[in-house]
Amino acid sequence: MQAFGFNQFGGPEVFTAIDRPAPQPKAGQVAIQVIGFGFNPYDASLRRGEQANNRPLSFPIVPGQDVVGKITALGDGVTEYKIGDIVMNHRPLRGYADVVTASLAKVAPKSQALSFLDAAALPNAGVTAYALVHSLGHLEKGQRIAVIGASGSVGSLAVQLAKYAGASVLAVAGQRHADFIHWLLPDDVYFYDGPMQHNADWAHQFDLVVDAATNGTNGELAAWLVKPSGTITTVGDTGNIPAVEDVTIAAAGGKQPISDHDILMYYNHMAETYGLTVRVAKQVSFDATGVQEAHTLLDQGGVPGKIVAIKPHGRTTRHTPDDQ
């Protein structure tokens, strides 16, 4: 089999195809023939060597946290799945490959309500959004939530999770994403680069403020929106958020009280009963050239959604409107 990784840190050109034996599932694991995988900003940070001190890894390094594929082998004791089942997998590394193995806590069936593009893009963004809204944010029905970075892959899922939970949602994004934001049906919208400035009625009115924008650098806006005794959750460093008395501040990234399997099943149920839009910005080829192209886009920044690599199979339905 082939994987796509690198033997030195650097730019997108360091990625090459790596031949290696296909992994075999251990007890409690499944082997997955990968149909598609997603790209995340963390993957580019890993490639640039920015994580080398915090997470030392041996070369070659194969990134990849999002996988959709077909089960090809079962480890001892696995009875929940059968050969041929299509599943999603949220994983720590090594998703850029023809075959991966995964434990059952990291795997969930792909709902027929999700396309293969959706499923390749969903796992990491979905798990992160769930943490921001539920595991850390503890959002309840009837509460008010503001989502900063609502046009991105994590932020748009956070908006939908909040609507599904019965909350009132303010979506905060750039004006060029207006068509997509309105597609999500938030209760109110603030375009931070539009003609309307801060609405004074929003000051300190939100039970939960989610900063899902890249690197979570909107701490001052989050502090302005959150109500006394409210909560701010972020994809970035909590140090970016000014200290606010009696406000809980938490960052995504830690262990959640429920498994990735349960979170992905929650999204399956949501897709089937409410609807789910997973924002996919770009599809690239399932090879080293496609991986290099995706990482070039990640380095450039500003990609409106996830980038995914998909093998040709004729079932890659897009569920969202083109970016305007």
From TrEMBL:
Domain Enoyl reductase (ER): 10-309
Superkingdom in the source lineage: Bacteria
Pfam families to which the protein is assigned, alphabetical: ADH_N
InterPro entries according to UniProt: ADH-like_N, ER, GroES-like_sf, NAD(P)-bd_dom_sf, Zinc-ADH_QOR/CCCR
MF terms (GO), sorted A to Z: oxidoreductase activity
CDD domains assigned to the protein according to its UniProt record, in alphabetical order: MDR_like_2
Keywords tagged on the record: NADP
Gene3D superfamilies xrefs: Medium-chain alcohol dehydrogenases, catalytic domain, NAD(P)-binding Rossmann-like Domain
Keyword check for Transferase: no
Name by which UniProt lists this protein: NADPH quinone reductase
Lineage of origin: Bacteria, Bacillati, Bacillota, Bacilli, Lactobacillales
